[in-house]
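User: If only I could read backbone structure tokens as easily as an amino acid sequence. Those tokens are not coordinates but codes from a learned vocabulary of shapes. Could you go through the record with me and say what the backbone is doing? Here is the record:
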Amino acid sequence: MQIQGYFDLRFEAVRDAFSELFVRTQQRGAAVCVKVGGETVVDLWAGVADNAGEQAWQSDTLVNLFSCTKTFTAVAALQLVAEGKLQLDEPVARVWPEFGVNGKQDITLRQLLSHQAGLPAVRQPLPPEALYDWEAMTAALAAETPWWTPGEGHGYAAITYGWLLGELIRRADGREPGEAIVARTARPLGLDFHIGLADSEFDRVSYLTREKNNFGDAAAQRVIKALMSDPQSLTALAFTNPPSIMNSANKPEWRRMAQPAANGHGNARSLAGFYDGLLREGLLDNQLLDEMTREHSIGEDRTLLTRTRFALGCWLDQPDVENATFGMGPDAFGHPGAGGCIGFADPQRDVAFGFVTNTMGPYVLMDPRAQTLARLVKACVG
């Protein structure tokens, strides 16, 4: 496999491990980008981008980043906090009056950002097309009753996060959520990142496939068991209501819509550039960044059925949990996306890291491919 791009010779071990992915795994296409102290030290890509295996992965190939999108959304919301247009600890219903019913009157932006609001799923059965109907989804969430008392426990809002935060951003910013988030996060840093992709960019998007005969770790198997055995459970509904959530990511309508929890499109460069921008106060001041990266939720996750640790719109490292560590420093913060994409920062080493793939692994938390590369970055930085 021919590896394209650039690497600083100090990071040759990272380049070798990236190349090895295409030998040892079912890897079809991928890219990795690492910045240290604001300087790019690794920017590599390889493999194929299309389903037929005929189109080579390019330097500007885009990937559906899934939940890596959530931190971009959180940063946009926190910028609105800095501007006084949103408040972390005031009821969401002050900005979104229809939301303040059925036990949600006191839910705050802080609770939404840290997955404590009790709204990871909608109970009312929704048709597949509701996925693409912003008004239908925000109305369903405004009418929903929390699955637990808000603030008493946490459960990952895999996709509802996008409508909940997006609607608040829409009301406070005045622009549509995808446009507002991109304008606030990607544009100032010159990042190739999109929420609501233009048709003219479709030919740059890699086609997603799943690894075969890989059933993941115990955490992944618990979620799969819940999906199969109890379709009305919180966990199942979080991923299957609307029923189109799990099988739409290659469709044109998925790419076009703005779903700020799950369908940002970008590449390894845009992820590393975003986290480098955070480390350099390019998007938030230090005080707000400290608040964003402070632990808010830890323990058994009611959606993912495993131990998670959240700050505001990002995951925090769990160094002692094999499938929940970024593999670098204990202060690392960032966000994985379904299937293996990940972006994060390690402030201790001044490292920003991005990895993207079109070959989706089955892991619920961190993907071992990215963890391997991150551990080698750590060793090379020293």
In short: The mean pLDDT is 95. The longest strand covers residues 39-47.
